[in-house]
Amino acid sequence: MTPTESRLRDALASAAHGIDKVPDFAMPARSRFSRPLAAALVAAATVGALTYLTQDLDPRPAPGTQALTPARSGYNLTAYLCVPTSVEPGCHRRAATPADHEAITATLTDHPGVETFTYESQEAVYARFRALFKDTPGLLRGAKPGDVPDSYRIQARQDALPDVRAALATLPGIDTVVDEPARPGAWPGDVP
Amino acid sequence: MTADTAPPRRVDERTFSALYRDHALGLTRLAYLMLADREAAQDVVQEAFLGLYRRWPSLRDKDKALTYARSAVLNRCRSLLRARRLPLRRTHEPPAWSAESEALLSEDRRQVLTALHRLPPRQREALVLRYFLDLTEEETAQAMGVTRGTAKSTVSRALTALSRHLEP
């Protein structure tokens, strides 16, 4: 290690102690509604969701209860869409519009490097969110429908990945495009 | 209860909470070293974890969750640093440590940190990932969203520039 590297390592470690603790994970403040109304909405949503989820919670859903698990196919890119809580400046704190969706699906359909793609709706992903955090009311309360982003799962040819990513990057309504590791068959919500 | 018998959702919930417990401090320090601003660093990390939490049901590979969180923190730091470069910026904004950490930081360390903050953000990022978080070249590349070769050359250029700034 060069002297500069040692000095750098030492200075970084020392300066980092300027932060010695972090707050607990904080849910966003819900300021849009008055408190009683917000509480009533959460209660109503809970009743609705529980009825719905009792059929679908099993990680190996019986035939006919596939609502939590979209059709399985491989994918190596996920394009997360904008929701009002997105912090990406390009999202302007609003959800992707129907026109955004049209442009995205048109791009994916026309791109020669895209083999397949599927869309997972906010309803479907929110249902899984509730299932995952069911036993943790604190975490469960932190997001309402519409906070959990919908996404496109895309299978692109390996050599076309950068190109597909670039084509999506310029489209409005997309929050982030994430590379997915090659794990054939694995699907979100699966436990390794 | 072992992981084998725990219902999947419990495993998931624990993993998210554990990720925050184990990495929020390190990521806040990372943001602090990038921004030299304690409050901004904490906000950036809260936002990153909030984003991760909302995407939790969509993550196929929870092993990659830390990589996502790290990238999100760095993305937010970059946006904040870009915003600071706008015309309204004061001519010279002293990093937090020059003002308040007299007792904690020796003169030599302060010099290094000041020099680090004269580097372009991407170079600073590369150095903090390598020499503070001790990431491998591959992990540094993933966190920065660049190829391994680019990460390597950014680290090397940054070290050269840092040495130059540190020359008497």
Short description:
Chain A has helices at 3-16, 35-53, 98-110, 122-132, 137-140, 161-169; strands at 77-81, 114-120, 151-156, 174-179.
Radius of gyration of chain A: 21 Å
CATH overall fold name of the largest domain in chain B: Rna Polymerase Sigma Factor, Chain: A
Q: What would the principal axes of the Cα set say about the shape of chain B?
A: globular
Count of domains of chain B: 2
Unreliable residue runs of chain A: 30-71
Task: Reconstruct the topology from this structure.
The complex is a heterodimer of chains A (192) and B (168).
Chain A: H1 3-16, H2 35-53, E1 77-81, H3 98-110, E2 114-120, H4 122-132, H5 137-140, E3 151-156, H6 161-169, E4 174-179
Antiparallel strand pairs in A: 1-3, 1-4, 2-3
Chain B: H1 8-35, H2 38-55, H3 65-84, H4 96-100, H5 107-116, H6 121-131, H7 137-144, H8 148-166
Helix pairs in contact in B: 1-2, 1-3, 2-3, 3-7, 6-7, 6-8, 7-8
Model description:
The complex is a heterodimer of chains A (192) and B (168). Chain A is built from 6 helices and 4 strands. Chain A is of the alpha+beta class and 192 residues long. In chain A, strands 2-3-1-4 form a 4-stranded antiparallel β-sheet. Mean pLDDT of chain A is 76; it is low at 30-71. Chain B is mainly α and 168 residues long. Helices cover 71% and strands 0% of the residues of chain B. Chain B is built from 8 helices and no strands. Chain B has helices at 8-35, 38-55, 65-84, 96-100, 107-116, 121-131, 137-144, 148-166. In chain B, α2 packs across α3. The model of chain B is unreliable at 1-8 and 88-92 (pLDDT under 50). At the A-B interface, α1 and α4 of A face α1, α2, α3, α4 and α5 of B.
